[in-house]
Each structure stands twice: as C-alpha cells, then as structure tokens.
C-alpha cells in the first residue's frame, strides 16, 4: 500500500478574453490553458446560433440561444451514448423537448421547461 501526499495546489491563472457571439461581444474569464478550447466553443456556438437564426428567421437572441443549446446538448448526448442502447430513447426525448421549445417560440412565449 502506498500513501500519496497531496501536493499544494497551485492557484489557477485566469485570463479575461473577448468572444463574439451573434455580433455581441462578451468578456469571459477562463484558465489560461483553456483559452483555445473556450475560443473554439465560442466559434461553434456562434456558428450554430447563426444557422438557427438564418434558417428559422428568428430575431430574439434568447430564443436562438435556447435552440442552439438544445442542438448542442443533443449532439453531445449522441456522442456520449456511442453504442449505448439508450440512444433512441434519448433522441426521442430530445426531439420532443425541441418540438416543445419550437412550439413555444412560435407562440411567442417562454417554454415551461
């Protein structure tokens, strides 16, 4: 049996960076070593939001953001489930949730999630 002693944790160095999503700029603090991942995430989010806004002719940024979040969550769950048999069940749930959000957006009110 070996006992490992905990090394004193080094403080994480954060950096404030600017990201642009749908022509709006945001200041975000992140660990220095995670800056490339954050920039790539912002690029992907911006791309998804533009696709949704342009395809559905949506104007409200909050509505576009909800749809983009649902689409990205769906993509993530698809990747995580891989060969898992829960994939079709999860896909059905997400499709239902997406339909619910789209219907609420069409009615011009926030969904009851």
Highlighted features:
113 residues, two-stranded antiparallel ribbon, disordered C terminus
**Kindly state the mean pLDDT as a whole number?**
78
Strand proportion, as a percent range, falls in: 5-15%
**Number of DSSP-assigned strands:** 2
Shape descriptor reads flat
CATH topology: Double Stranded RNA Binding Domain
Sheet with the most strands, sense and barrel status:
2 strands, antiparallel
How many separate helices? 3
Question: How are the strands ordered across the major sheet?
Answer: 1-2
CATH level 1 name = Alpha Beta
CATH architecture: 2-Layer Sandwich
Low-confidence stretches: 1-6, 109-113
- Taken in chain order, the helices and strands follow as EEHHH
- How many angstroms does the end-to-end distance come to? 50 Å
**How would you name the CATH homologous superfamily?**
Cell division protein ZapA protomer, N-terminal domain
Give the total of domains. 1
**What integer value in Å does the Rg equal?**
19 Å
What does this structure look like?
The protein has 113 residues and is an alpha+beta fold. It has a single domain, classed as Double Stranded RNA Binding Domain (2-Layer Sandwich), CATH 3.30.160. The chain has three helices and two strands. It has helices at 35-56, 61-81, 87-107; strands at residues 14-21, 24-31. A two-stranded antiparallel ribbon has the order 1-2. Strand 1 (14-21) and strand 2 form a beta hairpin. The model is unreliable at 1-6 and 109-113 (pLDDT under 50).
Entry summary:
This protein is an alpha+beta fold and 113 residues long. The protein has helices at residues 35-56, 61-81, 87-107; strands at 14-21, 24-31.
């Amino acid at each position: 049996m070996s006992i490992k002693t905990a090394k004193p944790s080094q403080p994480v160095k954060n950096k404030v960076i600017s990201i642009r999503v749908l022509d709006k700029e945001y200041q975000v603090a992140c660990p220095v070593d995670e800056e490339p991942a954050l920039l790539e995430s912002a690029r992907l989010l911006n791309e998804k939001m533009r696709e949704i806004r342009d395809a559905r002719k949506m104007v409200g940024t909050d509505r576009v953001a909800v749809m983009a979040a649902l689409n990205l969550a769906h993509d993530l769950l698809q990747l995580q489930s891989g060969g898992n048999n829960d994939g079709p069940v999860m896909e059905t749930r997400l499709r239902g949730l997406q339909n619910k959000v789209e219907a609420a957006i069409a009615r011009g009110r926030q969904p009851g999630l």
